[in-house]
């Protein structure tokens, strides 16, 4: 299970939720558990697994040195083989992933339960193989015991440091899942109380919000849907639960609120009493003993985001260094061709609807530049300079956006960002097409699936926008690192010398 899940599902903590019923059918029962609502944070789990492998490898090297120095003075190849097999058995032996759930992983009992079986399996493999390869049975047993002692010592040191780190407030704050409740009434109040009282350090309440037009500040809520959307752009938000009072038109209300929350980069859930019929085939997850249905998930998991971020940074850094002499030459040409700065900075809408300043080589006369993009660039645009014409045709004006990639504001591949006032068919893009806001769920890119398929240039009609958004959403659904590399290669082949660029 990935950290995109609200909490650990029934397969992971059956003892905590066995026989659980929908929230509205069973009164809330407080259980004073030490870690009542654990969840598996995918990046934390991946990091712990990696540290375990490193620790076992270090312990094995120490054991190997001791074995060769004090137990067996010959037969080094056999010792190396047995140690290697023991490490491989530890790494490949099935482990209980639920024991890596946060904050359960900080408990010594959970860590011992997670490690004891693979260590014993590695020790047993070491004993068997060393007995086969060596004639001295006593020496074989001593070697296996030494391996186990060194590995356990290394793992104990690693987990002690890990446990200390996982108790630090700054790290806990980063790992904690922040949940917003939309709705009022008994169901919403119970969820708020559980998040504030029972969830421990795994979850915290982002706020309770009202979706109705009759919002009353005296009810001590945290605002309206608009307040939730604007605040989510400034603060981390991991999940939203829709928990309205059960009344006529509840399902239509869920659909309307879900549409309003499309721009928010968050998992969205709904309580069971608000869905019925075919809607109950939605994926089901649990908050403690409370069931919720999934109606929207973030398109990329935290592990996928980490992979994409690392690849983006490394490639952007290497390309920037490689192209530095060429970019200096372009900057000199721009300065010689017309007055004004080398770079043009313009506000664009990025991930989760956040605004940032994009960098481009200036391709227009400074006094004609359109900072807010109220007028899109067209073919043979008189505002474009002589050098700017070639920069645009060869897409060189986009290269400084590598700086945005290094700053974490953009990706190498993704939907192209637009300026806030960009229009299609006379309408702002958010108003022209409801699906447009789904592009905000990933970082914008220097190039994208739409661009290499010819959907680039000026947005004149709604159909132009629909075509581009269709490609962008297809990219988000199909994302993989291989797909990103394919788009980057096709960009060089198709777009650098494209006749569509201007």
Automatic annotation (TrEMBL):
The keyword Nucleotide-binding does not apply. Residues 308-493 form the Bacterial sugar transferase domain. It is found in: Membrane. Keywords: Exopolysaccharide synthesis, Membrane, Transferase, Transmembrane, Transmembrane helix. It comes from the Bacteria. The keyword Nucleotidyltransferase does not apply. InterPro entries: Bact_transf (IPR003362), EPS_sugar_tfrase (IPR017475). It is a multi-pass membrane protein. The chain crosses the membrane at residues 114-133, 145-167, 313-334. Belongs to the bacterial sugar transferase family. This is Exopolysaccharide biosynthesis polyprenyl glycosylphosphotransferase. It comes from Acetobacter sicerae.
């Amino acid at each position: 299970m990935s950290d995109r899940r609200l909490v650990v599902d029934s397969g992971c903590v059956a003892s905590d939720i066995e026989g659980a019923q929908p929230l509205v059918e069973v009164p809330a029962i407080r259980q004073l558990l030490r870690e009542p609502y654990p969840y598996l944070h995918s990046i934390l789990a991946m990091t712990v697994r990696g540290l375990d492998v490193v620790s076992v490898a270090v312990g094995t090297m120490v054991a190997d040195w001791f074995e060769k120095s004090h137990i067996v003075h010959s037969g080094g190849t056999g010792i190396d083989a047995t140690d290697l097999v023991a490490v491989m058995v530890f790494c490949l032996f099935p482990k209980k992933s639920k024991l890596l759930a946060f904050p359960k992983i900080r408990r010594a009992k959970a860590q011992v339960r997670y490690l004891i079986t693979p260590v014993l399996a590695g020790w047993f493999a070491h004993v068997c193989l060393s007995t086969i390869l060596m004639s001295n049975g006593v020496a074989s047993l001593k070697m296996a015991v030494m391996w186990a002692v060194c590995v356990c010592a290394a793992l104990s040191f690693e987990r002690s440091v890990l446990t200390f780190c996982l108790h630090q407030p700054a790290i806990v704050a980063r790992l904690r899942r922040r949940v917003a409740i939309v709705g009022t009434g008994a169901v919403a109040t119970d969820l708020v109380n559980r998040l504030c009282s029972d969830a421990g350090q795994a979850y915290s309440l982002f706020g309770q919000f009202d979706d109705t037009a009759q919002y009353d500040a005296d009810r001590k809520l945290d605002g309206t849907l608009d307040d939730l959307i604007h605040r989510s752009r400034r603060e981390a938000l991991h999940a939203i639960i829709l928990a309205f009072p059960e009344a006529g038109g509840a399902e239509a209300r869920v659909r309307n609120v879900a549409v309003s929350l499309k721009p928010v980069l968050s998992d969205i859930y709904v309580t069971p009493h608000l869905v019925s019929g075919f809607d109950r085939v939605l994926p089901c997850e649990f908050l403690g003993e409370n069931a919720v249905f999934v109606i929207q998930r973030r398109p990329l998991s935290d592990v996928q985001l980490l992979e994409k971020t690392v690849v983006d940074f490394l490639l952007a850094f290497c390309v920037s260094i490689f192209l530095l002499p060429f970019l200096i030459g372009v900057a000199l040409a721009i300065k010689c061709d017309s007055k004004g700065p080398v770079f043009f900075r313009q506000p664009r809408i990025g991930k989760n609807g956040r605004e940032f300043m994009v960098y481009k080589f200036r391709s227009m006369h400074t006094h004609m530049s359109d900072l807010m993009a109220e007028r899109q660039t067209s073919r043979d645009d008189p505002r474009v300079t002589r050098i700017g014409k070639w920069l645009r045709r060869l897409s060189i004006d986009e290269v400084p956006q590598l700086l945005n990639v290094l700053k974490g504001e953009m990706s190498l591949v993704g939907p192209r960002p637009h300026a806030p006032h960009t229009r299609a068919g006379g309408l702002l893009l958010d108003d022209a097409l409801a699906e447009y806001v789904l592009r905000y769920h990933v970082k914008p890119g220097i190039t994208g699936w739409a661009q290499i398929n010819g959907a680039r240039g000026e947005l004149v009609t709604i159909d132009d926008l629909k075509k581009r958004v269709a490609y962008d959403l297809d990219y988000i659904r199909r994302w993989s690192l291989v797909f990103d590399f394919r788009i980057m290669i096709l960009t060089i082949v198709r777009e650098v010398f494209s006749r569509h660029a201007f």
